[in-house]
Write a structure and sequence with these properties.
This is HIT domain-containing protein. Pfam families: HIT. With 112 residues, this protein is α+β, with helices and mostly antiparallel strands. The chain has a single domain, classed as HIT-like (HIT family, subunit A). Helices cover 21% and strands 21% of the residues. The chain has a five-stranded antiparallel beta sheet with strand order 1-2-3-5-4. Strand 2 and strand 3 form a beta hairpin. The longest helix has 18 residues. Bound molecules: guanosine-5'-monophosphate and zinc ion.
C-alpha cells in the first residue's frame, strides 16, 4: 500500500524510533498520545484490521510486542489497556492494523 503511513513507518520509509521490532511487527509512540504510555503495535505487512486474515505468527509477534512494551514502560504490573479500533464506525482512522497500548495513568471504565 504505497500511500499508507503505517506501511511507510513500519518499513523504514519514514524514520521512526521503534520501542520493539521483530520480523513481523514494530512498536512506536503515537503522534497524539492519550496517556503517558501510548504505543502503537503495527505489523510490517499491510492488513486492514484484525479481521483481515492475519497469520498466527503475526498475532504472536503482536503479543510479544505488548509484553516487551509493557515491561519497558513500567506498566506490566500496574495495568494497561490494549485497543484495536476496527472499521470507521469504531473510530479506526488509519486503515492498517494497529493495536494501541495505553497506560501510566488511571484510564477509567466504560467501553474503552
Ligand atoms: P485509530 O484511530 O486508527 O485507531 O488510531 C490511529 C492512531 O494513529 C491515532 O492515535 C493517531 O494519533 C496515530 N497516528 C496517525 N498518524 C500517525 C503518524 O504518522 N505517526 C504516529 N506515530 N502516529 C500516528
Ligand atoms: Zn499499510
Amino acid at each position: 500500500m504505497s500511500d499508507c503511513i503505517f506501511c511507510k513507518i513500519a518499513n523504514g520509509e519514514v524514520p521512526t524510533d521503534f520501542l520493539f521490532e521483530d520480523g513481523n511487527v514494530v512498536a512506536f509512540r503515537d503522534l497524539n498520545p492519550q496517556a503517558p504510555t501510548h504505543v502503537l503495535i503495527v505489523p510490517k505487512a499491510h492488513y486492514a484490521n484484525i479481521a483481515d486474515g492475519v497469520p498466527a505468527e503475526v498475532l504472536k509477534s503482536m503479543a510479544d510486542a505488548v509484553e516487551a512494551v509493557a515491561e519497558a514502560e513500567g506498566v506490566r504490573d500496574s495495568g494497561f489497556r490494549c485497543i484495536m479500533n476496527t472499521g470507521a464506525a469504531a473510530g479506526q482512522t488509519v486503515m492498517h492494523l494497529h493495536m494501541h497500548v495505553l497506560g501510566g495513568a488511571p484510564l477509567g471504565e466504560g467501553l474503552l
